[in-house]
User: Fold Metal-dependent carboxypeptidase from Tetragenococcus halophilus.
Amino acid sequence: MKEQEFLTELKEMDMLQQALAILEWDAQTGMPAEASNARAEVSSYLYGKYFSKKIGPKMSEAIEYFSQHPEKLSEVGKAALTLVKEEYEREQAVPNELMVEYSKATANAHHAWQKARQAKDFSLFYDALKNNIRLTKELISYWKKDEQTDYDVLLNIYEPNMTTETLDDVFSTVRDGIMAIYQKIENYGIKPRTDFLHRKVAKEQQQKFVTKVVEDLGFDLSRGRIDDTIHPFATGINHQDVRLTNRWNETDFSMGIFGLIHEAGHGVYEQNIAEKFEYTPVHEGASMGIHESQSLFNELVIASRKSFWQKQYPFLQECVDGTFADISFTDFYASLQQTQASLIRIEADSLTYILHIIIRYEIEKMIFNEEVKVEDLPQLWNDKYEKYLGVRPANDLEGILQDVHWSAAEFGYFPSYALGYMYACQLYYAMKKELDVDQILKSDDYSAIQKWLSQNIHQYGASKKPNQLIYDASGEALNPQYLLDYLQEIYFAVYQISE
Assistant:
């Protein structure tokens, strides 16, 4: 087999994936509600074609031949083969009918989740969720190799080589550290003024401000677009087509602004993967955790810095026509760093955010360790929120129905947010050794930050494993202490606590 034949097969698979990605984007941004069943059928058909190629004879032949003759492959071919081989070994035993059923189930579950959200009623999502869990457990029986637990199998899909053993240890360190910081704030902190945060800011005003900001942060709108959705996401269709989505609240401007800044981090990553990897599985993020590190670098590192808002607050003032004319910069900046327990993960402040992830992580572990029934999940969710954050959802929309992930059967994904959080802070401290980050954020040109991220993270796509990327960029393995150091720096300054 020639390398070109292998790359052509990968391109055909990638084009099917692009079609599926556009259909999924459309389903979440503009598809009529009644089109759900027909769309599920189309998506299932295309996914069946894709999956047949993925585990088909050509791929089998390529893996066998090039594993024995790696010298016949270019750098791109070698990187692609590594990923294809890993996927093939995991999935070649999975019956095609099961993958088609899985694809159809997740498409229908998304629709059921939307209906349940509208009614604030988990029972409308119950059957679809139970089916997603059943199918995932069936898939695990094919995927499992030497992982210690079924949940480790799922973690490994999103974050290669990650285990519950590692996460239990890391989460314990982070949880204890966050609680210590939070306790100091409660005991000694001077609370910032926040009464003006819910003043009305029109959607158009928010859009004017944050669209310019995400362009400043490196998102290229000539190769991207921004649309509205219930649950914000970003999707890279191809190198020239990367789409962001967002939601807006005119009496909570920070939700829309920070939401789009977050999604733009994903978008900039997708736009800056080396073009040589196009049409191969290397042209995507190294892992979910690394992808989240880029969105969280934007949202929780850059957008929490005083220097960023020193530059952007005058522009926000201009966009909102005097809404905050009576609010000093010091009060405005401090208000954005307030910390208080909340019910909704994507609205959580950067100090308590990781506790939302730990709740989901613990529940997912229980689901796949057979320690909880599906009908008991809303109660379990509410109890954990009360235990960790001291708040209890009043309905299922505020509770278990808030995230899209389980409708897509993305079990094992949530820890990626926490890992992304830790990676982001570690990258910031590495970047700081080479760049004066605060000086750049006060300037008219942020390109040095984006350039550093592209050189150290983006360009490699999935050609390096996450642990290698982080080690190469920062000079050490994952170290959760950087996250705790960063949170302490930001929050102690705002709450006027001297260490």
